[in-house]
What does this fold into?
Amino acid sequence: MGKVISKNHLLQSGYFNDATAAVRHGNGRDWWFICKPFYENISIGLVPSDTFYVYLITPDSIHPPIKQQIGSTKGGGIGNLTFSSKGDKINFTCARGGAEVIDFDRCSGNLSNAVVLDSLFDAFELLTGSAFSPDDSLLYVIKAEYPFYLYQIDLATHSLDTIAEITGTQTVVNRGRSPCSIRLAPDGKIYMAAAYTDTLGYIYYPYNDSCYFAENMYLGVVNNPNVKGLGCNFDNFGFYLGGKRTYWGLPNNPDYELGVLAGSGCDTLTSLTPDPSPFEREVRIYPNPVSSELKIENSKFKIQKLEMYDIIGNMVWEKKVNKQESTIKINVSALSGGAYFIKAFGENGVAIRRFVKE
It folds into this structure.
């Protein structure tokens, strides 16, 4: 079990903003943490706004940052950072009409080959959230000032499509739904958070007790984010929050399942950490994603019991297993679409595997 042995150490003085992101090191153990300083005026000693701070986090230390200048100086460093699904690219969108995609080396922490996309936007468009499609071919970007838009950028051609204007249910100037953050989720869909604003466009925090509207009780959903154009199937009110409300933010979680960068030259560091048990490492489920029947290989590990949980931790299914079954079959056709977890109990340990129900 982990334990905090030291805290409240200042990593860096100066001005920083909420453009932060993390990705697993190519060795499968360590982490990279990236942030951007806030630039005001180089004449008073602040760093230029095209600077990235890249921190290496190892089990025993947070190392001094690698400081790199690359890409556009637009936006003063204020914006959003998002890693691609493979962790080999990072996107920065800024509050003043700027966006860029930069290659990232998971072994060295080096940034290179910046593709600046500022010309796709008006000079002072307020760009906030961004998310890569699961196959990293497309980039989705939110314009967070009226009129609000969801953009899609083809990263092969650097062309931009307007997927949707984000509107609410208000009848006066139509400003009741104000989007900001979007994130790629484990189920392969992209979700958008939006806040309720009054008819003048103002947001009030915290909401009062009567402020329950469709605008702040639903997330928007890009259902097929790998598909170019309107075929991505964006639903502005696609996910009901069960009576809860949202503001502008979504969790900025890294991809904990991103593994070793095999064959990269830095993957040998994994030998410094204990290998997982054969049970934990080799329990296999397929197909994934699945639409009707999920299969679990049980030829070696004598699974005794299975439990299934939804994405918020509710158990939705359990079964005792005949240890002699070589392949366990589970009918999941009645499950709602989304991400689930299988917890397998065997004679030699416990393994957890994630799958997506289509």
Q: What stands out?
A: Confidence is low (pLDDT under 50) at residues 270-276. The first helix runs from residue 214 to 217.
